[in-house]
Amino acid sequence: MINLPRTLGELRQSAFCENRLRTRNVKDELRENLIALLRQGGPVFPGIIGYEDTVTPHVVNAILSRHNFILLGLRGQAKSRILRALTALLDPHTPYIAGCEIRDNPYKPLCRRCRELIAEAGDKTPIAYLGRDERYVEKLATPDVTIADLIGDIDPIKAAKGGHELSNELTVHYGLLPRANRGIFAINELPDLAGKIQVGLFNIMQEGDVQIKGYPVRLPLDVALVFSANPEDYTARGKIVTPLKDRRGSEIRTHYPASIQEGIDITSQEAWTGRNGLKLQVPRFIREVIEQIAFVAREDKHIDKRSGVSQRLPISAIENVISNAERRAVFQNSEYVVPRIADVFAALPSITGKLELEYEGEVRGADQVVREIIKTAITRVFDQYFANADLKQVVQWFELGGEIQLLETANPIELVDLLRGIQGLLDKTSVLHLENEEAPEVRVSAAEFVLEGLHAHKKIGRSEERLFTAGDKGAKHPEKEFKTEVPDDFEARRRNRRPFN
Known about the structure:
Layout: H1 8-13, H2 18-23, H3 26-40, H4 55-64, E1 69-72, H5 79-85, E2 94-97, H6 112-121, E3 127-130, E4 136-140, H7 147-150, E5 152-154, H8 156-162, E6 172-174, H9 176-179, E7 183-188, H10 195-199, H11 202-206, E8 223-229, H12 242-247, E9 250-253, H13 260-270, E10 279-280, H14 284-299, H15 312-331, E11 336-337, H16 341-346, H17 349-352, H18 359-364, H19 366-386, H20 392-399, E12 404-405, H21 412-420, H22 425-428, H23 440-456, E13 460-462, E14 467-470, H24 490-495
Helix pairs in contact: 13-14, 13-15, 14-15, 14-19, 19-23, 21-23
């Protein structure tokens, strides 16, 4: 670690940040460090995928403009991650007067305690340092947040112990905002903050100071304010008061991944897929099906569009899919884990809980809605690979009375022997370009995908016990149906339904 000045006298004699400490505020610091980063050509927000040409340029412009800004978007769009990543644009070491609750600048102390300490100790005033992460303060907005939480309050105990009048600055107990002085203060889900509390942010955003409990305590804080919000909140739970909206410098819209590949990249980065002791291979088509589930759900009429479908859905889903395949491998005493389409259906619990249903969706039931979404996702991915493939031989094998059951407990080598009996099936899987395609687990996974695709297109039938049959014979082994009587007052109840929280 570099040698850092430990007293005010040493700091004054060193070149460490002297000019910057005297003249630069935190927004200037963010701006200068961002410009240096842009000149180096490095990524502004490493690990944030899909925003390079959309969101990131707007955030860069806001920082270069020294704006307070808000990220506006549905859940699971990396809003909080972007705000926390802003700390990378701060200096690695920032000196402040040791023991100060609001991290006072040694050259421009705000609080009375620090001014009196410097007057008394002079060059011997102790100096401490803040790291980047220590300069970021985040608060989740909730209706019970008070002005005292954010700004501060008078502490009668301090007054009694010190023998001070209540109006004395030394009696102040600082809130989160003053404690974020010389750093970044973030409020997540801003509309959930009560309107009268939002009003308390006016002064700090425009005039750059706060007032506590009506006493003439003025603190011209040096802080960058950033916010996040969900557009749903404007109408469902709360709203951002108009004067506060006017005081924000920039409003930046976030979005979900624009392509399946972006979704796969995000899920691969965020999901926990490394399983100890077992070799894992997740076929490309499995990853594509899982991402397609999120894309299909965002379009589905049974899903509440205002709530959105978080990118956490495919992340949780792929973890659950791999776990189901892992459980199968453990049961079979195998060291090779290869997920199959059956594992996607087994991951329903990781999907249903992340969807807000419209009234029609609630009538049908979450499980049935998700099963249909999965089938649509399978169909889309299947068509990408097999749209021009001739699978008549496979379909005819079933039409001639062929049946095959792909049980989870069955040995993959035995299943491959059974699948070889379906003329042309294993040969058609070559278009998937799989790694280790000769491994029995991989061959079973690929073949099952083909059969599921044909089933999704209603070319063949399949039962809940994963028995694949001819389409017309599927009635002998019907899938479990989820039928619900639609009430007579369906339309009236749909129109008058209360919004989901």
